[in-house]
Amino acid sequence: MVATVLSIGALDFATGYQIRVLPFYSVPIFVSAWFCEKSHAFLVAALAGSVWFYANWLTGDPELHLHNWIRVWEAFRHVAFFMVVAWTGSALRAKSDIASARIALLEHSHRLEREIVNISEAEQRRIGQDLHDGICQNLAALSCAATSLRNDLRELRLSAESKMADELANRLRDAVVQTRELAHELVPAHVAEVGLVSALESLTQSVTQLQGINCTFQARNGVSNCDEQTATHLYRVAQEAINNATRHGKASQIDVSLQATDHLMTLQVLDDGVGISESKSNGMGLAIMRARARLNGGELQIEQPESGGTKICCSVRIDQQGTELADA
């Protein structure tokens, strides 16, 4: 850039003071401010001011051969212009660096969110698989043993004891069913097989049967197919919202709805519980729900209606193409 300033000075001298090449001095100053440190840019600006002054002095510029105060004023004015160019270039570079750092931070945050969601998904699948292959099989074996014990007690004509064994066998069979349902919820492979609407219907029916509360589902405005990843994320959001409503909100009525409008699919979970506390609003479950929404280009909204309870809305972007599954 120093060589460029000297070359422009030589051109300024060769063309004379009648042709102004002042804007050309700004180029090396701005380049120095963008690619080098601010101090280097100001040094190049000072050099450019000196080169300009001597080039026009030697060519006989009348403005530089008048009174001393006019000469000083012209030199100060041009050097100040070069300094402003240097400062502007440095400011623009600093702003660009801040924007780049912010973009990098957002990308890093999105990568962390994606990793957290993937870890949560993998952990849920592991627990679900362990329930299905471990506890569920052990409960089934105990149920068979209790049934065999009941038959033996009946042969011995021990009616009271056989009745207790029969009740134990029935409870163990119920435990097997509940454990299997829980394992299927943790490993929702059926979402890809049956679709999001059927999976949400099965989820609400399971909650109603296992937890004894009224949990309903409704598909509105014609819901279209979406990709497997989006369907799985929405299913997980519905699971977490229902769990919060039953465990923390103590809800007795939960209404789940799914609707599609243009390029958005919106999942809504409304309950009549006690609402969500401030401590729970910053919990890991809701953080993962928000991350799931952002990973699909959407957002999560949590509201507390005046009538009480909690309303959670998750809107994600979907492809407009799809096959209509339900109408309301």
How would you describe the overall organization of this protein?
- The chain is built from ten helices and seven strands.
- The relative contact order is 0.07.
- Helix content is 68%, strand content 13%.
- The strands form two sheets. A five-stranded mixed beta sheet has the order 1-3-4-6-5. The protein has a two-stranded antiparallel sheet with strand order 2-7.
- It has two domains: 103 residues, no CATH class; 134 residues, Heat Shock Protein 90 (2-Layer Sandwich).
- The C terminus is likely disordered.
- The chain is an alpha+beta fold and 328 residues long.
- A hairpin with a 2-residue loop joins strand 3 and strand 4.
Rg result: 37 Å
Total number of domains: 2
Q: Helix and strand string, N-terminal first?
A: HHHHHHHEEHEEHHEEE
Q: In what range is the share of β-strand residues?
A: 5-15%
CATH topology term of the largest domain: Heat Shock Protein 90
> pLDDT average, as an integer?
79
